[in-house]
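ok posting inputs for the fe (ii) ion job
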Amino acid sequence: MTLGYMPGFGNDFETEAAPGALPQGQNSPQRCAYGLYAEQLSGSPFTAPRGTNERSWLYRIRPSVRHTSRFRRVEVPFWKTAPHVVDHGLPLGPLRWDPVPMPNEALTFVTGLRTMTTAGDVYTQVGMAAHVMLVTASMVDDYFYNADGELMVVPQSGELLFFTELGRIKVGPGEIAVIPRGMKFKVELVDGPVRGYVCENYGAKFTLPERGPIGANCLANPRDFKTPVAAFEEKETACRLTVKWCGSFNTCEIGHSPLDVVAWHGNYTPYKYDLRTFSPVGALLFDHPDPSIFTVLTAPSGEAGTANIDFVIFPERWMVAEHSFRPPWYHMNIMSEFMGLIYGQYDAKETGFVPGGMSLHNCMLPHGPDKPAFDKASFSELKPVKLTGTMAFMFETRFPQQLTEFAARLPGLQDDYPECWNGLDRNFDPARPEWPAPGARAGE
Ligand SMILES: O=C(O)Cc1cc(O)ccc1O
Ligand SMILES: [Fe+2]
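and the output
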């Protein structure tokens, strides 16, 4: 299957899967070509400023009102929504998990999401949830949309095909897909089970961060974001549509596929992005800048510089800083850091944090390089070094992240994680400013 994409971030796109299906010069013709119905999907309030105003016009076989019927509540027990504060009994502290093993049961994208943390409040449209994604089965006659937020999907192993109302997107490890709030879709496996991470954003949409003095290029460049061309499914058999709405799951039976958009135009769209096209900018002479230099996308809150969510990556890059401790510094942060590893090794923790694993360094909880990373970085020769074949990421939010029962009970929770800092002992000797003392090496 060939998949077509259009480049650009937040462009005003137009595309049609049948010639002449897209009206020209107006949104609402008296009669649409092919007898299609015109429908607007509003991703922002009508009156949002131009820079954040998002909507698309969909020309479809049936209007969305015919893609729902009477809903019944269903249980999707592992997908939790903020506010969700449970007494999980774990003591406060930094947390790290091994990868969650792939289960044997059939799990779709919807039933296979396992919430790790929630933050903020879905009712006031602030905050986020971090999920593990375990998909072993394609959605066949099942369709879904999320009224609670957009979904950023970060596969770690295996490929997924998203068939959305606006077209098809294939993503694999090293790529992300973003599906807007309210957009119907189904998810198919390409060639085997998929594991990954999902960030559910209850707040304002992800957008590109400002580049400030960096200028017009580098970091995530707009042309590397890809939006699908129109594609639709003509299916007149029994289907189900499930809607996540304020944390509840609601299903209805319909007699056709809701993916029936033959043409569309607008700027409220799903998209994919290859994280390897991110052009990092970093320390060229000395010191370790704040990790915000690696922000791919930011979901702003109302407060300047205080993101509801920053999506940050740690891609492969050269380390060249002179007379500097090169890995992340020791840190306490007002923002809460949920991290995952897609492939390779993370320089602050070369062992213990493995692909498919996760860590949580919550609001104002100390963290930083483990003892082996400290020793290596303190004593290695500072020639240029390339960190190759690595891709870690962080969902960083201004809100404290609340652990779910699922996360607290995972067998892969590493009880001994805090011990990775054992041995970072006192070196201080008021009589010896030079450390280690000439001829000696710390700890030897
Ligand atoms: O490893 C982490 O926890 C994330 C992180 C990265 C970095 O470059 C600086 C500080 C920081 O907390
Ligand atoms: Fe940090």
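notes: The pocket of fe (ii) ion (ligand 2) is lined by residues 331, 333, 337, 361, 367 (CB under 6 Å). The chain has two domains: 5-275, 282-420.
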